Amino acid sequence: MHFLNPMALWLLAVLPPLAVAAVRYAFRRQSNLILQYGEWHLFSRFSATFSSRWYWFKSICAGLALTALIVAVARPSLENSRIEYPIGTVDVVAVVDVSRSMATQDYQGKIADKQFAAGTRLDMGRHLLLNEVIPALGYNQLGVVTFAGSAFDESFLTDDMPALTWVLKRNLAIGAAPGEGSQLADALNMACALYDIDSPPTHKRVLLLFSDGGNDSDDQKLADAIAALKKRNVEVVIVGLGSKTARPIPISQLSPIDQWHFQDQQWYTLDGQVVTSSLDETTLIGLKNATGGSYTRIDSPSDFKLESLAKGVEVKYIRGERELFMYPLLLALVFAVLTVMASRELFRHPITRQWRKLLQWRRK
User: How many domains, in total, are found in the chain?
Assistant: First the structure.
């Protein structure tokens, strides 16, 4: 055993003796006052006072309390203790399209959760992330990238799922990424950047793409992004959101800025024409083939499965310090209570007198 803060032990040479001296000084001061203004045998008959032995007991308790407290401050610790840390070995980056087309209500009535009652494509993506992906990851890491006209790192890789859940519920919305359109290549490059920052090469890397197929990146830029994914051995899982039937985009589901700009309209229009959107699987299937990944089109939440990602959890053992400060701290509390309770009044209490009579009767 050793101390992480050994300098605190120097206080043992000063504070406990001072505590004992202070209690003894209080006893002598009381005795001198009594002798100065009256006689001890008369005063003690009408006032509860400490005897010499109880002042000794009180001083010893005070000294031991300070001694234990100083030892606790010195932080006693056991070397080379085996501490268990559960660490995941899978790093997942969810890439989510938040362009206007994701506001199309293809899943109205298909999601049981009331907060997704609008049934937009983005609602389905958020529902799957919150109810399927996060529970399956355990101690693994998850990061989130959103994209529209450009990519935005919504969250770096983290295993703090409660905090990430809070982010997804409040910040994952239409217009969460800047610009207009769907720059898919920028989003894939942003995901690679997240892997480079927080994902060790030994970890399994998975990219989850939630998209309705919209892509405004040129072919060369997209090819470069795919090459970057392959270089990092990223497994690509593509989730197609939406219906193949073209539907208009409701203004009520767009960002607050768009709702204000198109406040007199029911549907999103461009150049006087109502814009409709449908699932474009061409880009998604092409990306699947180019990366050697997988593709699933979501018609209902039950179409999405993620069991394979939950297997990458290992328990890592590392040498560490096991601190023991809580034991001397508890001992200090016990002696502090005894210091306060060590008074003659305690032993004059009716309950205490009954216990003393009972003990005397048993001795007889």
Answer: 2
